[in-house]
Amino acid sequence: VSSFARWSKWGVAGIAGYILYDTDSREWSVRHTWTTALQQYALYGFLRVAGHRQLQQLIADAERGEEVQRGLLSELLLRHQGTLYGRQQGLQGIATLEVFRRSHPVTCHGHYAPYIDLIREGKENVLSPGRPHMLAMTSGTSGSPKLVPHTKEVSKTFFQRGVMTAFGVLEEGFPGSVSELQRSMKLTFRAAQRELDCGLRVGSNSASPDSPGFQQMLFAYASPKGAYDLSNEADALYAHALFALKDRNLGIIEANFAPLVCMMLDSARENRRNLVQDLRNGHIWDRRVPEDVPQPELRQVRSILSHLLFLKAPLELEQLEFNFGVWGTGAMDEALIGPDPRRAEEALQDGVYHVEMNRPASRNSLNSLFWPECRNVFEYLASESDCRVVILSARGKSFCAGLDLTDPLNQPPSAQDAARRGLKFIDHVKIMQDGISAVELCLKPVIAVVHGACVGAGVDLITAVDIRICADDAYFCVKEAAVGLAADVGTLARLPKIVGNDSAVRELCLTARNFDSKEAHRLGLVSAVLPSLEEAMVQAKHIAGLIAANSPVAVVGTKKNLNYARDHTVHDSLDYVRTWNASMIQTDDIGEGFSASMKKTKPVFSKL
Predict the structure, then answer these.
(1) Distance between CA atoms of 51 and 587, rounded to whole angstroms?
(2) Is the pLDDT of residue 457 over 80?
(3) Exposure of 247 by Cβ count < 10 A (0-12 exposed, 13-18 middle, 19+ buried)?
């Protein structure tokens, strides 16, 4: 017995140790503590296992659909025979689908209206055994809202056959999406409910911030309770977007209705400057005071949210980081991200923005979401007056492993007719090309910091930037020839002009062989090789700081004219720069530069 007890203790200790190790090795959201991380670890672990079982059950049921549906009908008929509706409709004598079809009419909600009225009066055993949990109001998307009895059995079925199955689908379709300890952006509002004289609740049955179950789930959500206390929908969406931006490891965007996700994304896009300003200052609603929120509530909620936003961290933060990924590991997994106060020591200089690819689990391979996202991000940075230079890097062990071939939307379009298939393919590739070209067309200089693998589409991407720096462990490969196609997203058009050695470029592209950082430096693909990624980032920040200190008008003009000269003759380029400077030389930056030079001080140039 004592030996068994001793081994049991060692077993428990071993399991606990593994759980702590496994929890620590996963990707955490910013506001997680060990307590909340372990809570999410336990919950999501259960949902992954249960979700897999429910998904397998659903697939098995679908394979024998008619048999399962007949069994379900028999079960429901038996359960409701003793209700008022069952007695009046003669459900006691119905046992098969065929008899049910002959005996029971096809109905609409109006057929049940008299029974709903009886339930509102407090009657039991009307449409379902016992008393319903509440009378739930439908959303009204296909007509006027209707009242429907909502029972605990319905809630149980929804959780088991709906929520759990959804987790199973997520884990199977997007491996790792519910394995990390990433909080979700949960979009929901207080459910409008009232209580009848009989004590029955009437209203929306959506998950409400007021419910005890929701309060217990706050550990899994990016937004704190204060964001859910806001009664104004627009301000609540703004607060949710703010905390989603703050969480660099945001997971899933979750909402009861898809339009709500679109509303939040539209709100984030429209208020992007205000969101960045609030993140920078640590004060929520710097942009305005909500007109319909009472001042005492505003002061309290604003204080809570601002405290959680920065947790008393220094305000010298990275100005902005857009995080590429799958909004499946993620939702806004994949696109917007705010600064993390824990990294305040890595503050970038004024005007230096940081774009970071964030699909480390797939080695930052480029999925179908990347192309429009990349274009949107760099078009935004091109128009952002605060931005003067951009650093592009990636998280994880590799810069980019190339195209994500597991994403079906990355595959060429299908069509029976070869010509139509070809036309669709042209549009398909154009989207990809435009995503990469947006980096080159961005008016602000872009510095790429490469480490680990930079393969295929990764080479396409770095050939579109202005300056390339890499860590010693970086290696490169124009992989396309080895997988059956010619590189069509930018490498073949840009690499020859970067390297300037036609023979070397043709060798690399035709052999599809790897070449290391030293060879890349020798060829001129990168301007510097540093011992590690950290040192490469330091060098990139130094270069970015030097660029950002110059006149933004001159920097934009220099990049614009360098790109033009690369693609045109010397004569055409001289004409172009002459015309360009005819207007640009009138800038106040020239006077500021000369004045600072005479005074031996640093010039202070205005924003673009």
Answers:
(1) 62
(2) yes
(3) buried
> What does the radius of gyration of the chain's CA atoms come to, in whole angstroms?
30
pLDDT beyond 80 at 19 = yes
- Residue 410 is classified by DSSP as G
> Which of 494, 511, 538 is the last residue in one of the domains?
538
49 neighbors 270 (Cβ within 8 angstroms):
no
Task: Check whether residue 365 and residue 496 sit in a common domain.
Answer: yes
Q: If pLDDT is split at 50, 70 and 90, which confidence band does 346 have?
A: very low
- Separation of alpha carbons 445 and 469, rounded Å: 14
Domain co-membership, 528 together with 557: no
Structure tokens at 209: 């911030």
Tokens (6 digits) for 112: 């049940």
Q: Do both 372 and 521 map to the same domain?
A: yes
Dihedral of CA atoms 46, 48, 53, 55 in degrees, nearest 10, equals 140
Do 514 and 562 lie in one domain? The reply is no
In a domain, 204, yes or no: no
pLDDT band at 335 (very low <50, low <70, confident <90, very high): very low
Pairing of strands 193-195, 201-203: antiparallel
Strand, coil or helix: 127: coil
pLDDT one-digit tens code per residue, 130-141: 989 888 887 666
Domain boundary among 492, 509, 538: 538
Between β-strands 147-150 and 515-516, what pairing exists: parallel, antiparallel or unpaired? unpaired
Q: For the chain, what percent of residues have pLDDT higher than 90?
A: 32
Give per-residue pLDDT as tens, 280-309: 666 565 444 444 444 444 444 444 444 444
**pLDDT tens digits, one per residue of 532-572:** 999 999 999 999 999 999 999 999 999 999 999 999 999 99
Q: What distance in Å separates the CA atoms of residue 455 and residue 399, rounded to the nearest whole number?
A: 9
Do 73 and 145 sit in the same domain of this protein? Answer: yes
Range from 181-185, 246-250, 267-271, 322-326 carrying the lowest mean pLDDT:
322-326
Neighbours of 359 (CB within 10 A): 28
Residues in the chain: 608
Residue 110, number of CB atoms within 10 A of its CB = 8
Question: CA 575, CA 557: separation in Å to the nearest integer?
Answer: 14
Q: 274 is written with which tokens?
A: 């205000």
Which residues contact residue 429 at a Cβ distance below 8 angstroms, ignoring those fewer than 6 apart? 488, 489
Residues 387 and 497 in one domain: yes
Nearest CA to 573 out of 558, 587, 589 is that of 558
Sheet architecture: strand order including 515-516 = 453-455, 475-477, 515-516
Q: What is the mean pLDDT of the chain?
A: 82
Is there a contact between 201 and 135 (Cβ–Cβ < 8 Å)? yes
pLDDT at 608 over 70: yes
Residue with tokens 């140039």: 605
Residue showing tokens 């049910």: 100
Largest CA distance in the chain: 102
Measured N-to-C along each axis, helices 233-246 and 295-310 cross at an angle, to the nearest 10 degrees, of: 10
- Whole-number Å distance between alpha carbons of 356 and 354: 6
